[in-house]
Specification:
The structure holds two protein chains of two kinds. Chain A is mainly alpha-helical. Chain A contains 13 helices and no strands. Chain B has a six-stranded mixed β-sheet with strand order 6-7-8-3-9-10, with helices on both faces. The chains are: A mainly alpha, B alpha+beta.
């Protein structure tokens, strides 16, 4: 039965929801606004919210000083590559854990997730040394592998929960109907799991795009993605706020747009399985 | 052809043996029903025949060839699942065509067979719908359609009607029986509903804890149940089973009387008791009688409408020629 909600109550709920939403969005909004100010207005106290002289000067300077497209391309390769590689490894892993579970399946899943609890900096040293030995420092291939490994537990977990939603009887029916394992995966499981696979792809692409620790520590010039592009505009004294903001805006713009257009898919993916 | 033989088949899940060594032959063209309470191993047994579970030891033969290690796809059997297990992303047409596509039949033949099955099952108007747009009964028909197009050696049904409402269940029960009469293909049907078993089967296999309690025709089981378990399980309402002096008088440890084999009277009879609940079905009436000194409740079935009320003291007389007698171990006495 629907609960009766008074108009007052509704107004209150709406206000609270908007306040929380704006609070979360405010840093991004502030960054975008700052990117259109002059350096002096950017650090003015009290801060100027909207009544400043709008300028595109910062974007021009940033564009002039660094090759945005190269950073963007590196980000696309690294985030895209690590996500696709992760999915290829995770689909069979999640399939076997969801449909042919053993006594230890739950333990393996927990163990995989537990690797996410280790602070990344704890393994920086060994990985850095490995990268030097293997000649992978500042290479896109190296970062693709590292980011894939970082996100693999999440990809497997997400796919596992989606696959668990698919009734085993449907796969058994396919087997009775004469489908081989390959046909079963191709014609039955994958089409049924498409929404789940799509939202997993999307979320992991975003996570990989925003990943800063490894991308900053393992790249210098050639493989540097947009995170490094932003970092190159931060200065210890807090100067050049406006230019930093312009660089940040340019870095997050592609993923913000992607997220905006796929928000329906993302929300569905993240709440999938919670409600039957 | 579809003669299925189980030879010394066992199944264990870890330490737990769910099917102790079991022998069973299902003849070609026979409608066999596995019946038993939940957890008796009837579904497991069906899944062993299907190949969806591996047997722990023993052999399964289909038409004389050893199928023990043959994967389910290659056994030539079709299965209808309790949940229907339709492919939700495919239209009805594609669902029914799927096994034919897997068998690499040519398009024209697939078309012909799908249309044929759709006609038989009244699905022609729904071929382009998705399973989600169908009612429970229609989904069940699609599942059956998907099974019959393959022209399998045998059909396996795993409680196919338990998700349907009562009226639809009776209708589908008839349809499946008619399908069997027309196709004359072996069918193995799992149910916990003894009415389905009695009405549909050529042969009933009663299972308890993985053991076969009795195999026989519905009327064999009704007239001469081999033990008290089968006696209590087959027949509705349940047979009255009780111990005590009345049983001893007839040289038995336990005696059994079916509710329809007791006559009631308001004046005289062998036993007497007080009417508890009376269930009036119109065609007949079930009385639950207390204080008989035989058992807590004795159930009596009387044809038509009889006007005894709650609290009335009435007299009961069993038909001596159809009394069932069992020994201390619950086995039937000749």
């Amino acid at each position: 039965m629907a609960r009766a909600v008074s108009t007052q109550r509704k107004a209150l709920n709406t206000t609270v929801a908007w306040t929380i939403g704006l609070l979360i969005f405010f840093p991004i909004l502030w960054t975008i606004l700052t990117s259109f100010k002059t350096e002096a207005q950017a650090i003015a106290s009290p801060p100027i919210f909207i009544g400043f002289d709008w300028t595109l000067e910062n974007y021009a300077v940033v564009q002039e000083r660094s090759n945005y497209m190269r950073f963007l391309w590196n980000s696309v390769i690294i985030a895209g590559g690590s996500t696709i590689l992760g999915i290829i490894i995770a689909v069979p892993a999640a399939w076997s854990m969801a449909f042919v579970p053993s006594k230890r399946t739950k333990d393996i899943l927990l163990w995989m997730l537990s690797t996410k609890m280790l602070p990344a900096v704890g393994v920086l040293y060994p990985i850095y040394l490995l990268f030097i030995q293997m000649g992978l420092l500042d290479s896109r291939a190296g970062l693709v592998v590292v980011l894939m490994l970082i996100n693999l537990p999440i990809i497997v977990w997400m796919l596992y929960t989606y696959f668990r939603e698919i009734p085993g009887e449907i796969l058994e029916a396919a087997r009775m109907d004469g489908a081989s394992l390959r046909e079963e995966l191709l014609y039955i499981l994958t089409p049924m799991a498409v929404p789940g696979i799509a939202s997993t792809l999307l979320l992991n692409f975003i996570l990989a795009w925003n990943e800063a620790f490894w991308t900053l520590n393992l790249t210098a010039v050639d493989a540097a993605p947009l995170t490094a592009f932003i970092a190159s505009y931060s200065s210890p004294e807090g100067l050049f706020f406006a230019k930093l903001s312009a660089a940040s805006t340019m870095a997050i713009a592609p993923i913000l747009i992607l997220g905006w257009f796929s928000q329906k898919q993302l929300v569905r993916g993240l709440t999938f399985g919670a409600v039957k | 052809m579809g003669r299925i033989q189980l030879k010394k088949v066992t199944k264990s899940f870890g330490e737990v043996e769910v099917i102790p060594p079991l022998d069973l032959t299902i003849e070609d063209g026979e409608f066999t029903v596995f019946v038993g309470p939940s957890g008796c191993g009837k579904s497991t047994l069906l899944r062993l025949i299907a190949g969806l579970e591996d047997i722990t030891s023993g052999h399964i033969e289909i038409d004389g060839t050893d199928a023990t290690n043959v994967p389910p796809a290659k056994r030539g059997l079709a299965m209808v699942f309790q949940s229907y297990a339709l492919y939700p992303h495919m239209s009805v047409r594609k669902n029914i065509a799927f096994p034919l596509r897997m068998a690499k039949l040519d398009q024209a033949e697939i078309e012909r067979r799908v249309n044929g099955a759709a006609e038989v099952l009244n699905l022609t108007d729904y071929l382009d719908r998705r399973p989600g747009q169908l009612s429970g009964g229609q989904r069940q028909r699609v599942a059956i359609g998907r099974a019959i197009v393959r022209e399998p050696a045998a059909f396996l049904f795993d409680e196919p009607l338990s998700n349907l409402d009562a009226a639809l269940r009776v209708g589908m029960r008839l349809e499946i029986s008619e399908l069997h009469k027309r196709l004359e293909t072996t069918m193995i049907y799992v149910t916990h509903d003894q009415v389905e078993a009695m009405t549909m089967a050529d042969k009933i296999v009663v299972l308890r804890a993985g053991n076969i309690e009795q195999v026989g025709s519905p009327l064999d089981l009704y007239h001469s149940p081999r033990n008290t378990f089968v006696a209590g399980f087959i027949g509705s309402p349940k047979m009255n089973l009780f111990e005590g002096p009345e049983a001893q008088k007839r040289d038995a440890h336990t005696m059994g009387v079916r509710p329809e084999h007791i006559t009631v009277s308001d004046s005289d009879g062998l036993w007497s008791g007080v009417v508890g609940v009376a269930e009036h079905l119109g065609s007949d009436t079930f009385f639950h009688i207390h204080e008989t000194g035989l058992a807590d409740t004795i159930t009596v079935r009387v044809d038509g409408e009889v006007s005894f009320k709650h609290g009335d003291r009435i007299h009961l007389t069993p038909r001596e020629d159809v009394i069932h007698r069992f020994d201390g171990k619950g086995l039937r006495l000749a």
